[in-house]
Amino acid sequence: MNSFTFTQAPGVAAAVREHAAHEGAAYLGGGTNLVDLMKENVARPAHLIGLKHLPLAAIESTPDGGLRLGALATNADTAYHPEVEKRYPLLAQAILAGASPQLRNMATNGGNLLQRTRCYYFYDLATPCNKREPGSGCSAIGGYNRVCGILGTSESCIATHPSDMCVALAALEAVVRVSGPNGERTIEFADFHRLPGDTPERDNNLQKGELITALDLPANGFSQRFSYLKLRDRSSYAFALVSVAAALELDGNTITAARLALGGVAHKPWRDPEAEALLIGQPATADTFGRAAARALAGARGYGPNTFKIELARRAVVRALRQATEMTPAPDDNAFQNSNP
Amino acid sequence: MSSHFTQQPVGPAVAALVPAQPVALRVNGQERTLRIAPWTTLLDALREYLDLTGTKKGCDHGQCGACTVLVNGKRINSCLSLAVAHVGDDIQTVEGLGTEEQLHPLQQAFIDHDAFQCGYCTPGQICSAQGLLNEGRARTADEVRELMSGNLCRCGAYSNILTAVLEVLHAQNA
B63 burial class (0-12, 13-18, 19+ CB within 10 angstroms)? Predict the structure, then answer.
């Protein structure tokens, strides 16, 4: 790990000022990803700003019927919060499908959005990686890319965003609230993370020094019909090869509202409005799900070792939509039922 | 572990190179002030500066769970946490769970059910299991398996670890 200085910020404004005052500063939330990246010398901040004293750990209802998740609430406290369990079980299920209990006790909601790819080459300083060192090349293209992306990739980068939580947040259309040197603003979840293009070093659209303060969930949590299906090499404590957040509303057997987001396949949680549109007004049948899945994967491209993900993702979409449709009473043990292949 | 090694912590040598700062930690109910560099992990602070070597360094990357300790009653990976970030927290290690005269129920259950072979992962397993009990989310064997998945055991003693944890869980809920 490089040497750095450390300070605990007393509040949001002080943290933002502290960031602006130090070249190479970084915010420290739970540290589960940042400290690891620092140990690997992938991240080398000169100054760390601790956030634990900031009043951003609350989870509370919003006037419009939604729920505000504080950026510093832990993933565990969020997944087990009574309002999240009751109104946003898709989110609870996605969070509990990720990491381990220890990591979920440390990791914050804001930090979950900001975690970086687990592409092997990003972590390996001995190899070129455009995300770690812009312009050096992509070792994953033509390399061991089994975990890499199939949608929205570029010649510069085929890394994926590793989060489970973010896949559910994308499906639920959360809004990210941030505070920075130029004040406060909100970012629609779909606009938060970026595709790699020719600037894969930028994971998201935060401006320098901006701090996530909260995530706002809209009133509709699709709590009646949902599924977070996660496919991975072992059934616990592993990153997704492919994951699907599916949420439906039905009138009889006719789909009246649909949300579909994929994880493990792209540089950001992947949503395809055309695939969702193919579901609306249609009967909730295997044929309908198959058409939406085909549309969602229509632009997919494999890179050899990861080409299997295209068919895997197509089938996962169909299965997740079926699970969401057939769901009888809300699952009691939500993390354990739908998360296994 | 021999005290020969623990009496010579790496602290002073490292501290000479860096702007070490005083960090007050409350570990197993005792207030301790350390002069450590900001990049000292909680795990290294416990092992190298406080001679609390029960907590183990396995992978040092949050993947194995051997470094699990309880902070304010919640289990965390001490290897991924900076010690300077824990001022004001209540830190509990395996040394704070039981005594040689009076073992913690989890320690006794691990012995009774032969829930280890080499024992290297055991302190982390036991702290993690205490965290699991505190959380109150596990009821069935499958739930205990899932919620202990952050602790790896290279010897593969999982079935006996599960039995030991379930025994304490059921006794607690009886």
Answer: middle
- Over 90: is that where the pLDDT of A328 sits? no
Confirm or reject contact between A166 and chain B (CB < 8 A). Answer: no
Q: Rounded CA gap, A108 and A93, in Å?
A: 16
Indicate the pLDDT class of residue A332, thresholds 50, 70 and 90. very low
The mean pLDDT of A222-249, rounded to a whole number, is 97
Quote the pLDDT of residue B17: 54
CB of B128 within 8 Å of any CB in chain A? Answer: yes
Residues of chain A with CATH 3.30.43.10: 5-52
ipTM of the complex: 0.94
Measure the CA–CA gap between B50 and B151, rounded to whole angstroms: 24
Domain B105-173: which topology? DNA polymerase; domain 1 (1.10.150)
The Cα–Cα gap between A238 and A36 comes to 16
Query: Domain A226-327, CATH 3.30.390.50 — does that match?
Result: yes
Distances (CA, A) of B131 to A97, A182, A206, B46, B106: 18, 41, 35, 19, 11
- A41 interface with B at CB cutoff 8 Å: no
| CATH number, span A5-52 | 3.30.43.10
Q: Do A36 and B137 touch (CB under 8 A)?
A: no
Q: What is the pLDDT of residue B7?
A: 42
Nearest CB partner across the interface for B81, out of A31, A237, A336 = A31
CATH 3.30.390.50 spans which residues of chain A? Answer: 226-327
What are the boundaries of each domain within chain B? 3-96, 105-173
Q: Are A224 and A249 in contact (CB under 8 A)?
A: yes
For B3-96, CATH gives 3.10.20.30
Kindly determine whether residue B74 and residue A100, on different chains, have CB atoms separated by under 8 Å: no
How far apart (Å, rounded) are the C-alpha atoms in residues A108 and A165? 11
Report whether pLDDT(B15) > 50. no
Q: Is the pLDDT of residue B9 over 80?
A: no
| Res. B73: pLDDT tops 90 | yes
Q: Which of A102, A104, A236, A339 to mutate to test the interface with B (most CBs of B within 10 A)?
A: A102
Separation of alpha carbons B68 and B47, rounded Å: 13
Q: Between A76, A106, A333, which is nearest B80 by CB?
A: A106
- If you average pLDDT over residues B52-73, what whole number do you get? 98
Rounded to an integer, the average pLDDT of B100-114 is: 97
Q: pLDDT band for position A143 (50/70/90)?
A: very high
- Return the bridge partners of B127, or none: none
- A272 Rama sector, left if φ>0, alpha if ψ -120 to 50, beta otherwise: beta
pLDDT at B6 over 80: no
The pairing of beta strand A175-180 with beta strand A59-61: unpaired
Helices (H), B56-155: 105-112, 122-135, 141-147
3-class secondary structure, B21: strand
